[in-house]
Each structure stands twice: as C-alpha cells, then as structure tokens.
Task: inverse folding
C-alpha cells in the first residue's frame, strides 16, 4: 500500500519554496488582471490532510465558493485550484468585466482569470525545477466547498486517503479587496519526483 509519510523539515522547506515561486508569479498575473493593483500573498504552507478535511482549508464544508480547476500535466501531475468565496468571485468578475453581467459570463471571466493565474504558477514552477509542466483546459464550478472539493480531489488521494496541499492566500489592494486561495495538489508520485529533482 502507498502512504504519504510526513515530509521532514528540509523537504517542507523545499516544497514551500516551490510554492512560493509559483504563487508569487500567480500573484503578479492576478495583479495585471485587476489593473496593476498590488496583490499581497501569504507565505505558502504545506498541508497533509485527509481528503474529507480539505473543505476546512477554504472556509468549511458549507462555504459557497467558486473554484477554477485545471490539471497539471507533463513531468509532474496533479491539480491546481483557484478558490474564491462567492462574494470575492462577484467582485473579481465585476472588475474584470467593468460591471456586472449574467452569471454565465461572470463564470467564464473567472475561469479565464483562473487559467491565466494557474498557468503563471505552473510556468514558474517549471522554470524553477527544470521540469516540463503543461496545464489542461480549465473548468469552473460554483458550489458548496464540501461537494466541490470531493469531486476535485477524488482521484488525487493515495490509499491512506490523504492529499498534499500547497496553499497560499492572497488579497488585492483594490477597493473592495478581493481575497482567495491558490491550491496546488500534486499526485503522490509527483511529490517524490519533485523532491528527487530538488536533491531531497
């Protein structure tokens, strides 16, 4: 059976650095989308959690969220998620569209923004590690956090039911501010490959 063993401190530092590089470029991409306003990003953290507990990372099972998801393909595999609380998603779509629009148009705008942000993250991780990474076509969903994450993480769990999450929170300097999270969910085999590439 395959189990996630807890990373040691050196491995955690390396994974945080990878997340920091990727999420930093993602923040720059988001800044351009919101008119050059500053986007502050917290120091990324690495979380090893039961899949059932993942909704707690994004506000709880009943939080209403909009999630843009795309697969990480190539020499590393997994999934990237741009997670926005519903109110933040509405604010972002209003800034992207210079006003309100129909729900489908708003979701399409958020999906494209998520694609740009997540692709910037992947490109940066690829450049930093020397690994070839490709994004899939993104999808966007509006749902409660529990069902949304259950559908997203089902095929990423190892046999212990665990998921590794590289998570960074961000907030824009716009008024009103827009906050959200970028989650990188690598497959178990890709965690091993990444650490090996980093000499760990």
Result:
């Amino acid at each position: 059976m395959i189990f996630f063993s807890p990373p040691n401190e050196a491995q955690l530092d390396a994974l945080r650095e990878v997340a920091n590089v990727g999420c930093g470029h993602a923040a720059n991409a988001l800044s351009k989308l919101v008119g050059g306003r500053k986007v502050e990003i917290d120091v990324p953290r690495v979380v090893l959690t039961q899949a059932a507990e993942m909704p707690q990372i994004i506000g709880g099972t009943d939080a209403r969220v909009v999630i843009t998801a795309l697969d990480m393909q190539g020499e590393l595999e997994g999934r990237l998620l741009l997670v926005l609380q519903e109110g933040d998603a509405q604010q972002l779509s209003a800034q992207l569209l210079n006003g309100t629009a129909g729900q489908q148009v708003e979701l399409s705008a958020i999906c494209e923004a998520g694609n740009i942000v997540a692709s910037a993250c992947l490109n940066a991780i690829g450049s930093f590690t020397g690994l070839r990474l490709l994004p899939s076509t993104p999808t966007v969903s509006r749902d409660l956090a529990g069902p949304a994450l259950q559908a997203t993480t089902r095929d990423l769990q190892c046999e212990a039911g665990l998921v590794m999450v590289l998570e960074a929170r961000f907030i824009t300097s716009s008024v009103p501010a827009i906050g959200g999270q970028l989650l990188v969910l690598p497959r178990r085999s890709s965690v091993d490959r990444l650490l090996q590439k980093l000499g760990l």
Observations:
- The mean pLDDT is 85.
- The chain has one domain: 9-195.
- The first helix runs from residue 9 to 33.
- Strands lie at 39-41, 45-50, 64-74, 78-85, 133-135, 139-144, 162-172, 179-186.
